[in-house]
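Problem: given the chain below (200 residues), write out its structure.
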Amino acid sequence: MIVKKSAELTPTENFRYIAGTYLPRPVYLVNTVSENGTVNMGPFSYCGFISTHPPMVSVSVLRKKDGTQKDTAINLLRTGEAVLHLANSENVVGIQTVSKTLPYGESELDLSGFTLTDSQMVDVPSINEASVRLETKVHKHIELPSTDLFILEIVAFVFEDNILNDEGKVDTFALDVMAKLYGKEYTGINEVVEISSRKI
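Solution.
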């Protein structure tokens, strides 16, 4: 076995190993609103499922190279709201497009080709081109050495009509989800394997 001690690695090497092994990761386009009212968009795959009661997810917003906060973090701290949109095969290219860094207050909307619609429970607009939207409010902000970690409470799940089956459960294949691998690589769901749990 090859052992790499994280304390002896550079930040780039640590990123390479965690991003290359913690996968596939769901990708969310996170909408927030800037101080001047423009909609900021950013793709994030450093996301996690926290709890179900209340429903919460985490979003980790890495800081810029100079140590300053990214627009998403600034806006979340200011407004306390965000909308997360799940990436699928139809919107993933547009989501990747908005990863470009723009000056604060400028919107990535024109770059993405997406269109906006009103959300149900938050003031932050959603995009029409997503079959799953999570409308959220900030539950907690944790300041880490190089990251702003946000715990977000989901106040509304918004689904396209075909996403839920007759039993009210999510149809895995209808999601058409695209997940992040390493670098510029993404993957879809090509096969689902059911493994029955058993008591030991």
